[in-house]
Design a protein that fits this description.
By secondary structure, the protein is α/β, with parallel strands linked by helices. It is about 50% helix and about 15% strand. It has an eight-stranded mixed sheet, sandwiched between helices. It is globular. Belongs to the 3-hydroxyacyl-CoA dehydrogenase family. It comes from Oceanobacillus jeddahense.
Amino acid sequence: MNRVTIVGSGVMGKGIAYAFAISGYEVYVNDLNEDILTKAKDDINTLLDGSFEKGFLKREVYQSAKNNLVYEAELKKAVEGSGLVIEAVLEKMDLKIDIFKKLDEICPPETVLATNTSTMSPTEIGTQTSRPDKVVAMHFFNPVHKMKLIEVIRGLETSDETVKFIHDTAEKMNKTTVEVNEFPGFVTSRMNCLIGNEAMNLLMEGVASAKDIDNAMKLGLNHPMGPLELADLVGLDTRLRNMEYLYKTLGEKYRPCPLLIKYVKAGRLGKKTGSGFYEYN
């Protein structure tokens, strides 16, 4: 398998496409229209150029990655010939199911279909297809080109062959995998949402400033990023959707902090809008 399709060219979709392209895969990037794809192409090229100029990529890898990337708005053309299709859209179950139904219709029966979800059920998604044994969750982390981990979550019907295929693919990308039994939020999202939500409660209650909360976690508990910095990077709207899903499925301890809800209503979504718990130029 040397061709991969990424459906969705947001922050995660672009990062996943970049990671596959520098690993030698032919990568098709799909989204709703040409304008969105043009923006994605510009962003991925900027990342490639920066990585090459800073010496993180050898010239042959850099040139190969640029040649390996194809941007295609028509879904059928984008998935044709791909052994793996990864959905990387918003954390909305109805949207994901709609995409997987379409993929199931147009992809050959041997194609593996993966969702880059951080919380949702690959069993529920796979049930909507004729190939639940080939549906799996492949959870990447932001920024994809720096983060080594991929959570691999098997659905109830996901086959051992499919799981091995994903482990092998991740190894070729120089990523490390952990295998997780399906449960809402898996491992990382459950822990991360709890820590982040408590940091937001601390800020709301006036216990400490955002900077001091983050520094306490980085310098006192050796976290590489503070929980409020990380929430801004992920996007506060994304974090709120995750919290709402976990609150619905796992109960009271995941009730979203009122400050998070307020910031999302105000359009303070983090780095992508220029303001969140911090201000960005």
